[in-house]
């Protein structure tokens, strides 16, 4: 616990080593009090098992999304059409690796290792954001992903900066700052392309047409079909419903699309003055479920890519461990001048 | 129409608040459209601009091509830390390439490929994306496919040890632009060499497999090594004019550093002869291995499809 309130002295078990251990009910009450005053739960604090499991699932899924999300954009680094765009894209994908790193570290404070989580990912037992199961088919996608996909991610993630689990919330503060850079980079690429040739403008529109509906799906199923939302909100892990965040995203994106000069591919999209919000159509939820269940255009490819990288790196990780533990090849003596073959 | 800047007052750094603001510097990358903006690019007295430009292309192409190879590791490295580190090195080299290509164009515009009138493609991109492989001047060491992690580490070790020695001298170039580029790059290359040296030792002293792979990688790369110290006519001319560096003079210093790493790792120099050229012509003359054309085909495909494109 930290930041907002001072810990209550009588609640500190280390204050009096002879004190009776707290009962489960007392621990639960103390946990609920922390949640109620919107303070943070820290790794060494008591927490309900279900809260820990929910967080491991959510933080791991988030970390996996960052790492799998490197692939659709990483695929265009070699083909970036200018050296400046190549630098921007490579730096962005590198940031995603960094986000994965912070998030796996946050998950490790809950008692699971990066290795365990990676194995859960490559064996298909843990999920990642379905958006990355769509292919990237033109360089305009690098802009659209920044603008719409990172934009939707930010809508989802900004509230997580205030999430109840401390390490996750703090990781999210840093991640959101960088995501906001990425979103601007993406928007700036699209704006630049819209000032270019007719072919470039057509490329931008085609890309927006492809990514609009998958972006709306990033907020998850409608509230009445989202089984985990109520408990996650009660625990302060989640702070807004899927539909609330989706509405916010649509309302913020419409004027940006107008400024850019692109059309959003939804005939039902219209400003509703009475609600003070946009009405809009429903994504194809059957498609979302197909993608979630593994039948998206790139599910197999993304997991296979991650598995290959992980498996092919195994010998490097083993070598680093052997070297660090002093059990490596030829580390028992100073055989610096051997002949390059296996030392004794 | 709602105000896009409206948001909850306690939102952290609301990402949308500045998106429609007309501030040219608001996103990373928007402030480095011209890598030499504001720099005096006058060629020093007594220096042939064409030779200086070609020399810049040699050093720039080395960096560009290796950067392209290293970026292939992105999302493919053995662990996240190495993924980030290899991207970092690729980004540093890409930054060096941009400056050197821009410097080449500023010294001698006749070497920059011509595009249809009105094309907004800047000179650095014309040189990178609209030049054919026979006009690339990089050494062959940087273009061959990356191989496994051990081979990649070995290539970074060899290349950064050599380039660091070269750039430490180049930092005293009579060309103020080259001197400044080199001074900045020295800090980057020191890190690259350190990273690669640590990993080289780790792999040499790690497991039997890591050692086997390291030695195999060293054998693959070794035939390309000597080429880095062979003096091309343009290198000799620019060195004599006080703007370039004769690579033949670097061998002794480079050997000292490399031998330290090899000795600590218990690895001998391979007894393998250098790779011949084609009628004596090698990378610096634009005569490469078969893979460079294919690598450039991928790198250049989008840019070439849009010669009037604005990126």
Automatic annotation (TrEMBL), chain A:
Residues 332-344 have a biased composition (Acidic residues). Residues 1-25, 323-344 are annotated as: Disordered. This is 1,2-phenylacetyl-CoA epoxidase subunit A. It comes from Promicromonospora umidemergens. The gene is paaA.
UniProtKB/TrEMBL annotation, chain B:
NCBIfam families: PA_CoA_Oxy3 (TIGR02158). It holds the Pfam family PaaA_PaaC. It comes from the Bacteria. InterPro entries: Aromatic_CoA_ox/epox (IPR052703), Ferritin-like (IPR012347), Ferritin-like_SF (IPR009078), PaaA_PaaC (IPR007814), PaaC (IPR011882). The lineage of its organism: Bacteria, Bacillati, Actinomycetota, Actinomycetes, Micrococcales. This is Phenylacetate-CoA oxygenase subunit PaaC. Gene3D superfamilies: 1.20.1260.10. It comes from Promicromonospora umidemergens.
